[in-house]
Design brief:
Strand order of the largest sheet: 1-2-3-4-5-6-7
Order of helices and strands: HEEEEHEHEHHHEEEEEHEH
Strand content: 25-35%
Number of strands: 12
Number of helices: 8
Organism: Streptomyces javensis
Shape: globular
Protein name: MBL fold metallo-hydrolase
Largest sheet: 7 strands, mixed
Pfam families: Lactamase_B
C-alpha cells in the first residue's frame, strides 16, 4: 500500500501517513490511515479538488475518509470540504463562527488568487463548518493509532490547528504556521505578535526528531522551524 501512495503522487511520511502537494497553490493535504478511521488534513481549494482527493484516498485504501482536520480558514485549505460527505470535521475554537461570517471574504480571496468565480461560489455555498472545536488538545482514535489535534495558535490566523501523528518518526502537520517554499505569509488575519509563541508550542508538541509538514513546501525538521520562529520574531519585533 505504501508504494501505491507514492505511485499515485503522494509522499509517504511514515507508515500509514502521507501527504500531497496540490497543484496551483502548492498547499499540503495530509492523510492518516487507522484500522477503523481515516483522517484527512485540509481539503484543497475547490470542490473538484476535494472530490478528486476523496476518490483517490478511497481507491488507495479501499475505504472512504471519515474525519477531516482543518488547519486554518484560508480558501486553499478548506474549500474542498463539502466533497467529503459524511465526514466529521474538526477545527480550532471559533473557526465555525468565522466561516459563517466571512463567506464572502473567503469567496473573494479565492477568486483573487485565481480560483474560477463559479467554482469559488459553489464551494463557499456548500462550505461545511466544523462539527467539533478544539480549544486545547483533542485525541482522535483512528483504530490502532491515536492522533492529537492541538490548538497551537493564534499566529498565521486566529484559528491555527496542528495535527500530531505519533510514531517513528513522529509527524506534525503544521498548516501555514510553517512555510518552506517561501516567506510565511502574514495577511490581514494574522496575529504577528503571537506567531513565534505558536511555533514554540509546535516545537514542544513535536520535539526535536519529528518531521514537520508545512502548509506549503517540503517537509522540514525542528531546526528549520526554530529558525523560522526566530526570523518571524525579528520580522515582527517580538522579544523572547
Amino acid at each position: 500500500m505504501e508504494t501505491c501512495w507514492e505511485e499515485a503522487g503522494w509522499e509517504r511520511l511514515a507508515p500509514g501517513v502521507a501527504r500531497r502537494r496540490m497543484p496551483e497553490w502548492d498547499e499540503t493535504v495530509g492523510v492518516v490511515v487507522g484500522r477503523t478511521a481515516i483522517l484527512v488534513v485540509d481539503t484543497g481549494a475547490t470542490l473538484r479538488a476535494g472530490a478528486e482527493l476523496r476518490s483517490g484516498i478511497t481507491r488507495l485504501t479501499g475505504r472512504r475518509p471519515t474525519r477531516i482536520a482543518l488547519t486554518h480558514p484560508h480558501f486553499d485549505h478548506v474549500l474542498g470540504s463539502a466533497a467529503f460527505a459524511g465526514c466529521e470535521v474538526y477545527g480550532a475554537t471559533g473557526l465555525d463562527g468565522l466561516l459563517r461570517r466571512e463567506r464572502e471574504t473567503l469567496r473573494e480571496d479565492a477568486i483573487r488568487h485565481g480560483v474560477d468565480r463559479d467554482a469559488a461560489t459553489e464551494a463557499v455555498d456548500h462550505l461545511v463548518s466544523p462539527h467539533h472545536l478544539v480549544c486545547g488538545e483533542l485525541s482522535l482514535d483512528l483504530g490502532g493509532r491515536t492522533v492529537l489535534l492541538a490548538n497551537v495558535g493564534p499566529g498565521h490566523t486566529a484559528h491555527d490547528l496542528a495535527v500530531l501523528v505519533p510514531g517513528r518518526p513522529e509527524v506534525v502537520f503544521c498548516g501555514d504556521l510553517v512555510e518552506e517554499s517561501g516567506t510565511p505569509q502574514a495577511g490581514p488575519d494574522a496575529i504577528p505578535g503571537h506567531w513565534p509563541a505558536a511555533l514554540d508550542r509546535l516545537l514542544a508538541l513535536g520535539g526535536a526528531d519529528a518531521r514537520y509538514v508545512p502548509g506549503h513546501g517540503s517537509v522540514v525538521d525542528a531546526a528549520f522551524v526554530r529558525a523560522q520562529r526566530d526570523e518571524l520574531a525579528a520580522r515582527f519585533g517580538v522579544s523572547g
